[in-house]
Amino acid sequence: MVIYVCDDYGKMSEVAANQFAAHLILKPNSVVGLATGSTPEGMYSELIKKYKKGEISFENAVSFNLDEYVDLPKENENSYYTFMHEKLFNHIDIKAENINIPDGNAKDFEKYVEEYEAKIESAGGIDLQILGIGQNAHIGFNEPDKVFLKKTSVVDLTQSTIDANSRFFDSIDEVPKKAISMGTGSIFKAKNILLLASGKSKAEAINNMINGEIDPQVPASILQLHSNVVVVIDKEAAELLDESTYIRI
Ligand code: F6R
């Protein structure tokens, strides 16, 4: 695991976008795994700037999103479908047919999750997976549990995740309680992983992910076993880490 610590959110977003762009330049038909949430927004803005300057193109890229709320219409302002289109897809040259976001309104979820997993496989697997991290160290919506969730599944969100997500909804009752999420196993199969975190509220999760036991109660801790993980965080998210373990950038 290579850990870069940046001064602030802006620098974290730039460094992450540079990493992302490097993958896309070296392999224009990259299969990228994408995350939503506040953390990658800045990186997506930086990628749009790079695209507009002609430095990168998504024309041949294929994307798979990590997760989507269950039973929220995709046109809802809080769906991850809307988020991804507003924050990234509407501003770049990715082909609509190359965008994959789990369908939170699928008719037969059991069948659908198998198909999503199979589609990732048939695209050749994920070259670069972008991750944020929850305060409880979830990745995707793989919440703390007794076992690591292997495959894409419908999951129950924990109360802490529902509370964290409520900032986007008018009332807590409107926050979906379930989501489709790629499993920890599906995430782990990615060839490269780029995890971002910003702010003090993530410091404990980051420390547990890097220095704690590998434990499904800390879903991100599984990444200790992955051979190609780059962590890009700001100094507040790094405040519990030993300075000798990271690169200040
Ligand atoms: C979103 C996702 C989640 C978020 C995490 C952090 O697609 O997979 O794991 O990355 O909840 O969210 P933010 O960035 O809003 O703090």
TrEMBL record:
NCBIfam families in the cross-refs: nagB
Function: Catalyzes the reversible isomerization-deamination of glucosamine 6-phosphate (GlcN6P) to form fructose 6-phosphate (Fru6P) and ammonium ion.
Keyword flag Hydrolase: yes
Class of the enzyme per the UniProt entry, highest EC level: hydrolase
PANTHER family: GLUCOSAMINE-6-PHOSPHATE ISOMERASE
Segments crossing the lipid bilayer: none
Alphabetic keyword roster: Carbohydrate metabolism, Hydrolase
Molecular function, one GO term: glucosamine-6-phosphate deaminase activity
Organism encoding this protein: Peptostreptococcus canis
InterPro entries in the record: Glc/Gal-6P_isomerase, Glucosamine6P_isomerase, NagB/RpiA_transferase-like
Keyword Protease carried by entry: no
EC number: 3.5.99.6
Family annotation (Pfam families): Glucosamine_iso
Family: Belongs to the glucosamine/galactosamine-6-phosphate isomerase family. NagB subfamily.
Metabolic or biological pathway: Amino-sugar metabolism; N-acetylneuraminate degradation; D-fructose 6-phosphate from N-acetylneuraminate: step 5/5
Name of the molecule in the record: Glucosamine-6-phosphate deaminase
Annotated Glucosamine/galactosamine-6-phosphate isomerase domain residues: 29-228
Active site: 67, 136, 138, 143
Catalyzed reactions: alpha-D-glucosamine 6-phosphate + H2O = beta-D-fructose 6-phosphate + NH4(+)
